[in-house]
Design a protein that fits this description.
Layout (H helix, E strand, L loop, with lengths): L1 H20 L8 E3 L7 E3 L1 H9 L3 H11 L6 E6 L5 E5 L1 H12 L14 E5 L11 H19 L3 E8 L4 H12 L12 H14 L6 H13 L6 H23 L6 E4 H6 L2 H11 L4 E2 L9 E2 L5
Length: 302
């Protein structure tokens, strides 16, 4: 709110200069500046130029000379283009904002009217530890969800866990047929071991070992059957890896309201129900020619 207050004061003071000079009122705009052009910018000079028969730059220079800065602003400059650029006094601004930011309801604003929103983020395959790219998404997703909550949206944060996909099948292949121990070396987290050692090693062997690649596809199919030993083993592995991933997320201060497991969607037959409904409502169609022949396709307009 402190920044908006400064913008409003700039509007008021600019209007005051217009009145004092006897200029006709104009509907000028005060807004955030582009990088390198101060913090706030105003287009008032452009709107007055025609009636005053002066260049926008000349009018901007007049306003810059007349403007009384106060404590909020460090300086105001008339750009050669005609814009008025205002530079905030950072010391004054920080002294205002920092104490306010420590208050419980700082930044709250009722934009959402308590309407429901879902933010899904992270959603990393549970076969490895989180790397810096994943953590970037965690930070962005958590920041977005917090901002929306402050704007009075009823936010639910989800993490979609793809625990029945190909990368999970790969680590199962590694443990079942690659000769890897289920116990990581001393001092190494299970998630790191699975991703950096088991996954990397086993996927490098598929091209030269077609039997191993065939087992990969068999295991992928078995993961869809909740009663299979493969599915049970996969659940044990992925929950251990997910636990390591969540430790990392919690250390960053992020959290989720719900973990959505792909396996549960498969086992509950929810996908079949949704897919049948999509077909009955003609939302998807089966391609009979072209590159996607034999595939169900969801048409999306450009």
């Amino acid at each position: 709110m402190a920044f908006l207050n400064i913008i409003n004061r700039v509007k008021e003071n600019t209007s005051k200069i217009i009145n004092e000079k006897g200029y006709d009122k104009v509907d000028f705009v005060v807004e955030y500046s582009r990088s390198g052009f101060g913090d706030i910018t105003c287009n008032v000079a452009f709107l007055l130029a025609k009636n005053l028969k002066k260049s926008p730059q000349e009018i901007a220079q007049e306003f810059a000379a007349e403007y009384i800065l106060g404590n909020d602003l460090e300086k105001v400059e008339a750009h050669k283009s005609g814009y008025l650029n205002f530079f905030i006094n950072n010391n004054s601004f920080n002294n205002t904002v920092l104490p306010e930011s420590l208050k419980e309801n700082y930044g709250s604003i009722d934009i959402g009217k308590n309407s429901k929103l879902v933010v899904e983020h992270t959603s990393v395959n549970p076969n490895k530890a989180l790397h810096i790219g994943h953590l970037r998404n965690v930070a962005i997703g958590d920041a977005v969800s917090r901002i929306l909550s402050k704007a009075n949206y009823d936010v639910k944060v989800l993490n979609y866990v793809d625990d029945s996909g190909l990368q999970v099948a790969d680590i199962i292949v590694g443990f079942k047929y690659g000769g890897f121990s289920e116990d990581p070396p001393d001092g190494e987290k299970f998630a790191n071991y699975c991703g950096d050692t088991v996954y990397v090693s086993i996927t490098s062997k598929y091209e030269s070992d077609k039997d191993l690649e065939s087992r990969r596809h068999e295991i992928l199919k078995e993961l869809e059957d909740s009663t299979s030993e493969t599915a049970k083993f996969g659940k044990t592995l992925t929950r251990k890896i997910l636990s390591d991933q969540l430790d990392t997320v919690w250390n960053l201060g992020a959290s989720y309201d719900c973990l959505n497991f792909e396996s549960e969607i498969l086992y509950s037959k929810l996908w079949e129900k949704i897919f049948e409904r999509m077909k009955s409502e003609n939302l998807v169609h089966l391609e009979d020619q072209g590159d996607n022949v034999g595939c169900w396709v969801l048409p999306i307009e450009n």
